[in-house]
Amino acid sequence: MANLTYKANSAQSRIFEQEFIPLLDAVYAFSYRLTGDRTQAEDLAQETFLKAWRFIERYAAETNAKAWLFRICRNAFINEWRSRQTQPRTRDIDDPAVKLLPVMDSPHNDRMGDEVMLAINALSEHFRTVILLDLEDFTYEEIAVILDIPIGTVRSRLHRARNILAKKLQVYGRSLGYNVQDNEDSEDAPNAV
Amino acid sequence: MCRITKIPRMPPTRYKKKVCPSAVFDCCSRQTFFYAPNLQISTLLNMSFTRQHFTAGQQASVACSFPWSLRSTESANHWLSALICPGSVGTRSGQCAQPGSGVSGWPGGSTPSSKMPAQILVSMKNARKSSGIAATDQFQAVSTSPNDQVTNETAVFSSKPGPRKPESPEVESLRALLKANLSRETAPQALLERIRSRMHDHRD
């Protein structure tokens, strides 16, 4: 019995190492763009992987590990991180770390001037999440499952988010040689939500 | 419970709320039935089409698939059985053949007599108002979206990710711009070590 448990754990460890760990950077980057803070992103990514480990028996090997992890990450963010953000942070004033904090504790302080990052960060959370998942090369169906929304909503949000970004980045994109067009007035808008 | 096949091209939620064939051909409930002996099937369907339960697309699909050349009561009964209660076709114990419904037999069971009037159960008023049954009760015949969602999830998670289909050149250009300028964050090594050590803690 103990031998069987050991073998199961060994197989799960192999799945974790071979399929999940290579996705750590992607999950961390997604977490960072959700939370806007590197420390919180580390915590969120860690929690995502620990939850994945805890429920690894529900995962079938060599299937869609990326979508599975991103779903866990997004749910963890929704359930815990967003509620934490509403609570005020408290720190001991005598804590020496307080003096080391930057003057402006902006999540994207180091991204000032980066037009693309600014444009994405200016999006509302719904639009930003859909755009980020699209940039991770998820299909519409995968995004719908990760975010637990209908596929028509994915299309709609993506369409609107792209229009907002195209409008903001039109000049910047053209200066870099990209054919960025604002299609906001086009009639082929997907299903409204 | 009358099983009604899901009509394609309709989002589940919208179908659930606005389109309910069971409200039009309510063959399970016997509270508000319209007795229509020997009434032309086309007339009945035309009447039902005037109701708001069918969308234009569904009207078209039903109208196109219905053999309008059928005029006899027997053929019409057979056809309506398939249209109304597909699950009960070929069985005598089908729920459409409830006592008093007039539709006592179907192909595979006893043949409907030509003398038997075609009693077709059609609610003529708004089903929610006339039957006194909560709309949600009637909508139970329709497959619900949570099951679809589970199937969908299972399909996505249990299969390998497929290649992404390229979209219009403008969209692809915007995506290329975003991807090229989006900083690629890498997880610190300490995070990986922390996860591995916590994994072992969880195992212990």
H and E order of chain A? HHHHHHHHH
Distance from N terminus to C terminus of chain A (CA atoms, Å) equals 53 Å
Largest sheet of chain A: none
Low-confidence stretches of chain A: 91-113, 186-193
- Unreliable residue runs of chain B: 13-110, 133-148
Structural class of chain A: mainly alpha
E-strand count of chain B:
0
**DSSP helical segment count of chain A:** 9
**What's the end-to-end separation of chain B, in Å?**
51 Å
- Biggest interface, chains and residue tallies: A-B, 56 and 41 residues
The percent range for helix content of chain A is: 55-70%
Q: What share of the residues of chain B does DSSP label as strand, in percent? A: under 5%
**What kind of assembly state do the chains in view correspond to?**
heterodimer
Secondary-structure-derived class of chain B? mainly alpha
Report the helical percentage of chain B.
40-55%
What is the string of helix and strand elements of chain B? HHHHHHHHHH
What is the rounded Rg of chain B? 26 Å
Overall pLDDT metric of chain B = 55
> Biggest sheet of chain B, in brief?
none
Short overview:
The complex is a heterodimer of chains A (193) and B (204). Chain A is an all-alpha fold. Chain A is built from 9 helices and no strands.
